[in-house]
């Protein structure tokens, strides 16, 4: 389906876009931060910001900040709108 849309140069811009970004802590002594690991990158001590934005306007609709070791699937659900469209 995606290949067919690309072939016709159709871009779907409805819905909610989500992303999880790791934010490094200022100090490893900061108690609420935790290590966020990744398979191909070095681990980072910090927090994770889960953001959802409207696909059409790019305005941020929700934000959830957790310690770095919280899985995206656990925290990301809090940023999704009730009516997902």
Indicate the percent of residues in helices.
10-25%
Give the overall average pLDDT.
Answer: 79
Structural class: mainly beta
Unreliably modeled segments: none
Per DSSP, what share of the residues sits in E-state strands of 2 or more residues? 35-45%
Q: What is the N-to-C succession of helices and strands? A: HEEEEH
- Described by the principal axes of the CA atoms, the overall outline is elongated
- N-to-C span: 19 Å
Largest beta-sheet characterization = 4 strands, antiparallel
| Whole-angstrom Rg | 16 Å
Q: Tell me the number of strands.
A: 4
How many alpha or pi helices? Answer: 2
**How many domain modules?**
1
List keywords for this structure.
85 residues; mainly beta; four-stranded antiparallel sheet; 4 strands; 12% helix; 36% strand; elongated
Can you describe what's shown?
By secondary structure, the protein is mainly beta. It has one domain (13-79). The protein is 12% helix and 36% strand. It is built from two helices and four strands; from the N terminus they run αββββα. Strands 1, 2, 3 and 4 form a four-stranded antiparallel beta sheet that branches. A hairpin with a 7-residue loop joins β2 and β3 (44-54). The protein is elongated and about 50 Å long.
Topology:
Layout: H1 2-7, E1 16-24, E2 34-36, E3 44-54, E4 60-67, H2 72-75
Antiparallel strand pairs: 1-3, 2-3, 3-4
Q: What's a quick, concise take on this entry?
A:
The longest helix has 6 residues, at 2-7.
């Amino acid at each position: 389906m995606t290949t067919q849309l690309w072939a016709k140069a159709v871009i779907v811009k409805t819905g909610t876009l989500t992303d999880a970004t790791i934010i490094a802590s200022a100090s490893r002594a900061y108690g609420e931060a935790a290590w966020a690991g990744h398979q191909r990158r070095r681990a980072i001590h910090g927090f994770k910001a889960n953001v959802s934005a409207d696909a059409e306007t790019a305005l941020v609709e929700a934000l959830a900040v957790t310690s770095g070791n919280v899985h995206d699937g656990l925290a990301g659900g809090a940023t999704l709108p009730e009516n997902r469209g």
